[in-house]
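From the methods appendix. Each design record in this collection lists the tokenized structure first, followed by the designed amino acid sequence. Records were kept in a plain field format so they could be parsed without special tools. The example shown here is representative of the layout used throughout.

RECORD:
FOLD TOKENS (755 positions):
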């Protein structure tokens, strides 16, 4: 793949629909409206698979939020990627410096801001029971899903890898013997298309299949004012994804086979130089988000595919499960990191981004990647007061990473540096868990997991960076560690409808290795370990017209892995903090206010703090104001970050949805659906600076629709980010006050047919 392919200028076509909405308070969560009936309505039982069994969420001693049905459809109507879930679940944040290609997840403030393509994350993403380890696998589009579950706190005794913070779990709609499907088409601002559909049904009396597909595209709606630059339009994309599944149901045996693929062709994250006012976190005056002035290339290409085989044998007293998964990815992401170096010298009367000390244009690629996973698990089949499950898990990943640098100021944009990283990661684990009914009302659960993790890493410079590191290498690093994770919890039924629970769990993340050879060499962070405590209440209220979940928590992290990115020398250094603590609470609530009005609320408070008096990181190189104490190390100025909150960890998250239906007949209705999400400010980096601390955000959506034939058909108009808030959601700090922004306001129309 050539890093010099052109990016076409696709001017935005905006056809806004005029909508008005009163201000609503931001608060939270999850559910689905049924057609009006003569009998009083009630919430369906919320079943989840948080413990690898189908259970009522009320009986699971874990803080969990499930998103199903209409809410997923509404939030994704504008063609946004997986980041639309950020702030829509208590304690969940998602951001990216790669755009759609590389989402980074944070639960209760624990995450990883590292942008390297082999970065490990403490939040594990599990798609159809297969862990997605590479950051480039975590952004697979959401379509034709049975539901989403977000499990907060360590989950390592049952799920995949690296779960000290929690798990985000996606389950596709399964094939069945009942034929069904749907088609959904949405069109909106910036010539955005969001088309998806699925169909499934029987092939024989034992075989069934389901095919699902998605296509999304948007025009380049940001224009480059520098007409001689190689890239003229930005923020557009074309993306397609498909999944085919085959299900065999025999006597005592079930096999579910899955093949899936994704292809993304668009622009990379758009970095905008000097858009932040010095001394504040406000945008500069006369800022226009529809224009930039930049001189570099910009594109993002990503292709992934994979498959899995999930087999299940009913052996009578026990059931044996086998889950085999294979994933692979190939990508190249090229961006003008300085935000427009040559564009700063356009002359009088021409727009430019202001002073930029030096140019920086780079690309990161994944030319070779593959991941194998295998799990065998045995679970008991209703052994009375005691049930259990146990198994083994194997993980094998091999990845090669290309890092390129380019000379923006020389005709032809020649490559000026090339470094290669290679990493082989093998891990295996053995785990067991069980639950025991101490009494009819009190149940104890416990789990334990032994993990062994090994990484072999090499890195080399193949072409020197101008004025930088000479051709050198290979540099070699490795790690080989083991650990025991565990959890213990109890659930007590206070009444038939109200459960109280408490849980303590230990999580673990294996060491990480990075090789930024052009800017500082190979660095390594040791293992991190988490002890988490939580307690809560889960209740069905008012004859199941309402559901409540409330939890309080605290966690302590020993040796938390952190990444110090940027600084004057544009380094990226892995390090361990001596200790980090986090504490707070979470609320999930949903209720039918009337038979036709459904309210959901969610809220979370997360107070995080780094506790390491000696931890020092390089400060910004682009005019920011450091508010931390500083120290001098080897002639350089460093910030002491003891007492700071974790980056990208909003203290407050609130969300709300409200759906009101107005029946026309027994089979049709008009409806109004609104959703709002609030996130408080966050630090972008480990040090504190007003320029690199986001402003709070409140984004809302509105949907006006009509469905008929008992919900088989639906037509609606919608708006996303109705208030048209413009927020800096991330930054680059080594060169200037460069930031990147949230998604723009969009309007559209959508039609859905189910069959």
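DESIGN:
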């Amino acid at each position: 793949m050539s890093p010099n392919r052109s990016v076409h200028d696709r001017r935005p076509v905006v056809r806004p629909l005029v909508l008005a909405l009163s201000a609503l308070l931001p608060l939270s969560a999850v559910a689905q409206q049924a057609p009006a009936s003569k009998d009083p309505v009630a919430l369906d039982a919320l079943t989840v698979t948080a413990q690898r069994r189908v259970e009522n969420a009320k009986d699971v001693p874990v803080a969990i939020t499930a998103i199903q049905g209409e809410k997923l459809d509404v939030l994704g109507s504008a063609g946004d990627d997986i980041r639309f879930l950020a702030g829509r679940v208590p304690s969940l944040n998602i951001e990216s410096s790669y755009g759609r290609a590389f989402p980074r997840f944070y639960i209760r403030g624990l995450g990883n801001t590292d942008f390297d393509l082999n970065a490990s994350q403490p939040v594990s993403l599990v798609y159809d029971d297969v862990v997605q380890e590479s950051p480039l696998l975590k952004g697979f589009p959401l379509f034709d899903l049975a539901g989403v579950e977000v499990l907060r706190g360590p989950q390592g005794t049952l799920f995949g890898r690296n779960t000290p913070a929690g798990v985000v779990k996606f389950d596709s709609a399964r094939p069945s013997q009942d034929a069904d499907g749907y088609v959904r088409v949405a069109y909106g601002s910036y010539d955005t298309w969001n088309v998806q559909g699925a169909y499934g049904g029987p092939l024989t009396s034992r075989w069934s299949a389901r095919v699902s597909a998605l296509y999304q595209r948007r025009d380049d709606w940001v224009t480059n004012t520098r007409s001689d630059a190689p890239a003229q339009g930005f923020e557009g994309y074309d993306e397609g994804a498909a999944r085919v599944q085959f299900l065999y149901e025999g006597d005592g045996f079930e096999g579910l086979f899955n093949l899936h693929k994704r292809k993304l062709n668009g622009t990379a994250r758009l970095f905008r130089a000097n858009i932040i006012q010095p001394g504040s976190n406000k945008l500069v005056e006369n800022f226009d988000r529809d224009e930039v002035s930049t001189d570099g290339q910009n594109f993002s290409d990503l292709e992934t595919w994979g498959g899995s085989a999930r087999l299940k044998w009913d052996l009578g007293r026990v059931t044996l499960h086998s889950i085999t998964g294979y994933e692979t990815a190939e990508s190249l992401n090229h961006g003008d990191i300085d935000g427009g170096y040559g564009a700063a010298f356009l002359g009088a009367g021409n727009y430019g981004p202001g002073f930029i000390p030096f140019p920086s244009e780079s690309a990161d690629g994944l030319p070779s990647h593959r991941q194998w996973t295998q799990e065998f698990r045995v679970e008991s089949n209703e052994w009375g007061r005691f049930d259990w499950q146990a198994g083994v898990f194997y993980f094998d990943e091999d990845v090669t990473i290309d890092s390129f640098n380019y000379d923006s100021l020389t005709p032809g944009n020649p490559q000026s540096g090339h470094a290669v990283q290679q990493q082989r990661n093998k891990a295996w684990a053995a785990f067991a868990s069980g639950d025991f009914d101490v009494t009819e009302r009190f149940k104890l659960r416990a789990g334990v997991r032994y993990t062994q993790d090994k990484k072999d890493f090499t890195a080399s410079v193949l072409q020197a960076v101008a004025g930088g590191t000479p051709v050198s290498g290979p540099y070699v690093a490795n790690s080989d560690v083991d650990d025991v994770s565990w959890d213990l919890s109890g659930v007590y039924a206070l009444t038939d409808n109200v459960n109280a629970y408490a849980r303590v769990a230990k999580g673990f993340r294996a060491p990480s290795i990075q090789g930024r050879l052009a800017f500082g060499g190979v660095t390594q962070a040791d293992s991190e370990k988490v002890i988490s405590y939580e307690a809560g209440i889960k209740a069905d209220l008012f004859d199941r017209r309402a559901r409540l979940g409330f939890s309080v928590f605290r966690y302590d992290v020993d040796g938390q892995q952190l990444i110090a990115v940027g600084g004057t020398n544009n380094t990226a250094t892995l390090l361990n903090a001596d200790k980090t603590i986090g504490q707070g609470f979470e609320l999930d609530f949903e209720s039918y206010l009337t038979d036709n009005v459904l309210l959901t609320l969610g809220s979370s408070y997360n107070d995080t703090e780094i506790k390491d008096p000696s931890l020092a990181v390089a400060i910004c190189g682009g005019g920011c104001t450091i508010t931390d104490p500083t120290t001098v190390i080897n002639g350089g100025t460093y910030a002491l970050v003891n007492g700071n909150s974790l980056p990208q960890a909003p203290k407050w998250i609130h969300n709300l949805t409200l759906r009101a239906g107005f029946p026309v007949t027994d089979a049709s209705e008009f409806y109004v659906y609104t959703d709002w999400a609030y996130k408080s400010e966050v630090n972008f980096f480990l040090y504190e600076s007003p320029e690199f601390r986001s402003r709070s955000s409140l984004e809302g959506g509105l949907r006006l629709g009509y469905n008929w034939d008992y919900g088989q058909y639906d037509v609606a108009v919608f708006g996303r980010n109705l208030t048209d808030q413009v927020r800096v959601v991330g930054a680059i700090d080594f060169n200037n006050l460069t930031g990147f922004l949230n998604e723009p306001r969009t309007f559209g129309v959508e039609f859905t047919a189910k069959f």
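APPENDIX NOTE: Residues 1-37, 347-351 have pLDDT under 50 and may be disordered.
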